[in-house]
From TrEMBL:
Domain Putative oxidoreductase/dehydrogenase Rossmann-like: 3-109
The protein's name in its UniProt record: DUF2520 domain-containing protein
Transmembrane segments: none
Protein species of origin: uncultured Cytophagales bacterium
PANTHER family: CONSERVED HYPOTHETICAL ALANINE AND LEUCINE RICH PROTEIN
Residues annotated as domain DUF2520: 128-253
Gene3D superfamilies hit by this protein: NAD(P)-binding Rossmann-like Domain, ProC-like, C-terminal domain
Pfam families: DUF2520, Rossmann-like
Amino acid sequence: MHYSVSLIGSGNVAWHLSQALEKAGHQVREIYSRTPGHAERVAEKLYDAQVVTSLDFSESESDVFLLCVSDDAIGRVADELILPDEDAVVCHTSGTQPLDLLAGREHAGVFYPLQTFTSNRRLDLTTVPFCIESTDQHTEQVLVGIAQSISRTVYLVDAQERKMLHVGAVFACNFTNHLLALSRHLLAQEGLEFGLLKPLVRETFEKALEAADPATVQTGPAVREDYQVIHAHLDYLQRTPHWQALYKSITDSIVLLSRRG
C-alpha cells in the first residue's frame, strides 16, 4: 500500500528518506523547514513536493507525518504541529528520544533508520535496518508497511532496545570515525599521508564484519599484552596528554575483554 507523506525537517535524514519514499511509490507532498532554502534543496530531488514554512497541516492530504528534526526539537515541533485529522499518523526518526514526546496523538510512532546519513552521498536504504515503535496496531501496520517498502530489514523495537542500539551505534560508528580522524592527525604531525593506513583500515573492517565476534579477530600490542610496545607508544604521546589517556583507556579495555575470552 502506498501513502502520502509530509516531512518535517530538511536535514540529512529528510534528504535520504524523501527520495527513498518516492522511489518506493509513496507520494511526498510537503517538506517543512523554517529555512525555505533548505527545504527546496530536498524538494528539488522529488517529483512534486511543496515547500512549506508553517506547521499548520490542517489542509494537508498526507496520511503520514515524519518528524526528521534534531532530538531537542522533537517535543517543540510535535506541540506546534497541527494535523489534518485524528487519523493521521505522526512519528519521529530519533534513535534516542521516547515515543512519549508525541503524547496526545491518536496514532504516533517511531520510524528509526539505523544508519549514518550525509546529504548528497549515495546510500542504499534497502540494506538499512528500520526500527519501529508505535502506540497502536494501525500505526504499526502503516509504519512497518512503509519501512518494508524501503528496506529488507524491519524490526519492532521498544524504547529501551532502541536506546541500546543507539549506544552501540555510537561506539561502532561515531567513535570509530573519530579514532580514524585522530590517526590522520598523528600521521600529519610527522608529514605522513593518511592514505598509508587505508589498506589496513579496510582489512580491519572486513575481518570485523565477517567475524561472529570482532573480539576474536583483534590484533595489536594490547591483545598480545606487549607492554614494551605499549609503553613506547605512551611515551610518544606525552606531548598530547588527552590522546595518551585515550590510548591507555582503549588498551586497558582490549586487555580486559581479551582476558575474559
